[in-house]
């Protein structure tokens, strides 16, 4: 800026060698000028073209009037580059021969000819004349106008020379990470107010006023009246009058609304008292949350597999069973019957006290889609396979191991601590969990043709026979199952009587425990293996051929029946050895209806009495169906508090049904972005339920707070498959959540979601 004749240039090493202007050799900071002929620069532009460093000033070089151009080495980078070009003759002459040096040369030439001597004149003292500079100096000088404060630091004489110890205090150790330096009152700054006598005289304005009131003398009064008596003719005339009819017509609607309001809401309800119950949830932190408690996975049996079902042990604390299946696409699931089992499938038993090692394994012939513990004997499990077969297990011989899972886990931990303390290098071998073989599997010819999607044990107070009649189960032992499948069939299975197997003697069991011999495979249901047939078969034939049934069904318990007293049971096997259908009383006043959710997104309520197809006999199908969901119904569950309230989940929404209401659902959600993969009711709060989604989020719905959206969201995993709740104690509630990568998450439910409010 200000020098348009100067053009900064960057000279590379090659250019410096061509024009002999190498830095610190040909040109330096003192000798920084270099004259270059114009023809040489033009030849370089023609030869090197775009590579030439003179390319940016090509036009300036061609229009330069002189024969030589001045290039200056810019050692201090005054113009931003290592060289700059001078593009005018005048500027070149000024740089090569500055004007000051020219004048000095002329003066030297003049002084060389004649030498002049000036005579000496003594200095004369002149008085100092002020021009105002001392005022400016005084104004700019800094003067201390503030009175200085004096500090006196004193100490008791006996403490002179005593050692002083300083300590550090971390702010994180103090509550709320805040250390307060308390102030104190300094008596030196206490100002005393001067007292003075002040007198004030105030005289109010006086005004005279008067009023006159009418006063009456009080006296007792009484009234005597008689009712108006109408004759029959007058009554008929009054009742048939148009005035009365018009009055009743005008107030009828208002009276109906008032009566409905009295039925819907309690006019004497104390809203302020009910509002106090929600004071605990007024903070900024969400009051409804799930806390991670434990996680389980197995690299051999659960790696790259989808957990298909999760079930808590009904009697032993902290034991949870998990089944897994292959991760298949929809096209592969269509032909499940033709797929061979590439990996051994098992049901794993995990303990909350040992998250690394499974406690027990149940061998499975195929991948298990669902399974249930027997309500009468938790040592018996019934499961449904991917090929449609039903399997039975009996792990009563390993019940003690599950009960001692906590003790075994503490023992392993104590052994590891002792090894660390003693500094002994050793290897801790942990044996594999025992593998229990299945007792019986149903005949594949009479089983389902597609995967068993749901299984339930029938209630222990009744059982069905081959004719579809409901009989009284006096033994109160669950001996019948019901399963469903997308092959449009619902099968009822009966565990027939058999000879009681011999129990091993105590000496034999003791000998096996001493020598570590594995117990024999249980032969509880050996008489059913590969020959077990269903007792009844229900076909759902109203579905079109292009659709498939993917049901989740359950029978309902309408009323509890009083059964006569029976002798004390020795074991479930002993009770099952007694014939279950002889000399039993037929029940008349019991409902055997059940609900079915299908793959074509219908929620169907099917009466069992009208849907029975005995082997070889078929009856007509009558049912009622409702289309609500957008995709397959994956959850159909009755409320644990209201037996007539049902939750159905499928696709992108859920619905709540009430039995007896035939015009549709009583509550239906909107369709969010993700798909719902499962859900369950809360076991302690009637208005709370949980829904898992394919994006890994859990929706917590609290109907007391919101009915249009979830009250809380929480991300658990990549994709959720199964949700199962459990009550460990009155203060500890768990929620088991599984995903499609073989990981089981056990979450602890907070107190807000587990403790119901008043009159919930």
Automatic annotation (TrEMBL):
PANTHER family: DYNEIN AXONEMAL INTERMEDIATE CHAIN 3, DYNEIN INTERMEDIATE CHAIN
Record bears the keyword Transmembrane: no
Region (Disordered): 95-114
UniProt GO cellular component terms: inner dynein arm
Protein name: WDR63 protein
Keyword Repeat among UniProt keywords: yes
One Pfam short name: WD40
Gene Ontology BP terms: cilium movement involved in cell motility; inner dynein arm assembly
Subcellular location: Cytoplasm
Keywords: Cytoplasm, Repeat, WD repeat
């Amino acid at each position: 800026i200000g020098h348009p004749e100067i053009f900064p240039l960057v000279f590379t090493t090659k250019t410096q060698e061509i024009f002999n202007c190498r830095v610190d050799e040909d040109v330096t900071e003192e000798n920084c000028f270099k004259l270059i002929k114009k023809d040489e620069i033009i030849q370089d532009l023609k030869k090197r073209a775009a590579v030439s460093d003179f390319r940016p000033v090509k036009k300036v070089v061609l229009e330069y009037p002189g024969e030589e151009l001045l290039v200056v080495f810019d050692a201090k980078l005054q113009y931003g580059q290592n060289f700059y070009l001078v593009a005018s003759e005048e500027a070149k002459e000024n740089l090569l021969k500055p004007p000051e040096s020219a004048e000095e040369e002329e003066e030297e030439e003049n002084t060389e000819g004649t030498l002049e001597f000036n005579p000496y004149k003594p200095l004369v003292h002149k008085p100092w004349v002020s021009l105002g500079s001392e005022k400016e100096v005084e104004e700019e000088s800094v003067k201390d106008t503030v009175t200085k404060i004096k500090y006196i630091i004193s100490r008791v004489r006996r403490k002179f020379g005593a050692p002083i110890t300083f300590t550090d205090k971390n702010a994180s150790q103090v509550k709320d990470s805040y250390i307060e330096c308390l102030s104190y009152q300094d008596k030196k700054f206490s100002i005393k107010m001067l007292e003075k006598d002040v007198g004030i005289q105030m005289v109010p304005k006086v005004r005279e006023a008067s009023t006159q009131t009418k006063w009456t003398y009080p006296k007792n009064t009484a009234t005597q009246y008689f009712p108006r008596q109408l004759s029959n003719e007058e009554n008929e005339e009054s009742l048939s009058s148009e005035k009365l009819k018009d009055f009743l017509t005008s107030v009828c609607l208002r009276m109906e609304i008032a009566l409905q309001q009295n039925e819907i809401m309690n006019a004497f309800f104390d809203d302020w008292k009910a509002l106090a119950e929600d004071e605990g949830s007024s903070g900024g932190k969400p009051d409804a949350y799930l806390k991670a408690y434990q996680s389980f996975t197995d690299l051999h049996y659960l790696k790259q597999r989808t957990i298909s079902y999760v079930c808590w042990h009904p009697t032993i604390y902290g034991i949870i069973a998990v089944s897994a299946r292959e991760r298949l696409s929809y096209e592969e699931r269509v032909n499940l019957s033709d797929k061979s089992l590439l990996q051994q499938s098992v049901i794993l038993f995990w303990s909350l006290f040992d998250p690394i090692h499974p406690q027990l394994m149940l061998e499975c012939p195929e991948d298990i889609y669902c399974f249930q513990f027997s309500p009468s004997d938790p040592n018996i499990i019934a499961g449904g396979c991917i090929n449609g077969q039903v399997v039975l297990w009996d792990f009563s011989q390993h019940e003690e191991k599950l009960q001692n899972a906590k003790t075994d886990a503490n023992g392993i931990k104590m052994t590891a601590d002792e090894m660390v303390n003693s500094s002994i290098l050793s290897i801790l071998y942990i044996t594999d969990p025992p593998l229990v073989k299945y007792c019986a599997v149903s005949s594949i010819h009479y089983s389902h043709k597609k995967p068993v999607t749901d299984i339930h044990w029938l209630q222990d107070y009744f059982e069905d026979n081959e004719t579809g009649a409901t009989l009284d189960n006096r033994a109160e032992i669950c001996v019948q199952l019901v399963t469903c499948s997308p092959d449009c069939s619902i099968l009822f299975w009966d565990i027939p009587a058999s000879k009681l197997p011999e129990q091993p003697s105590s000496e034999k069991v003791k000998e096996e425990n001493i020598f570590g011999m594995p117990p024999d495979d249980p032969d509880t249901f050996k008489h059913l293996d590969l020959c077990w047939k269903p007792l009844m078969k229900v076909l759902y034939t109203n579905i079109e051929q292009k659709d498939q049934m993917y049901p989740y069904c359950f029978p309902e318990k309408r009323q509890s029946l009083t059964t006569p007293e029976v002798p004390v049971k020795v074991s479930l096997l002993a009770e099952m050895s007694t014939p279950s259908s002889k000399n039993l009383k037929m029940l008349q006043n019991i409902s055997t209806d059940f609900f079915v959710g299908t793959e074509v997104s219908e929620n169907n309520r099917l009466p069992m009495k009208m849907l029975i197809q005995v082997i070889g006999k078929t009856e007509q199908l009558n049912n009622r169906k409702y289309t609500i969901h957008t995709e397959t119904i994956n959850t159909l569950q009755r409320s644990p508090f209201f037996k007539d309230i049902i939750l159905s989940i499928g696709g992108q929404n859920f619905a709540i049904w009430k039995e007896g209401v035939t015009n549709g659902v009583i509550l239906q959600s909107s369709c969010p972005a993700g798909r719902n993969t499962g859900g369950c009711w809360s076991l302690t709060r009637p208005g709370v339920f949980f829904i898992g989604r394919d994006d890994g989020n859990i929706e917590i719905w609290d109907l007391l707070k919101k009915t249009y959206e979830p009250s809380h969201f929480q991300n658990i995993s990549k994709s959720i498959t199964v949700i199962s709740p459990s009550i460990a104690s009155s203060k500890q509630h768990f929620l088991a959540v599984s995903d499609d990568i073989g990981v089981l998450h056990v979450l602890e439910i907070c107190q807000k979601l587990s403790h119901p409010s008043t009159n919930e």
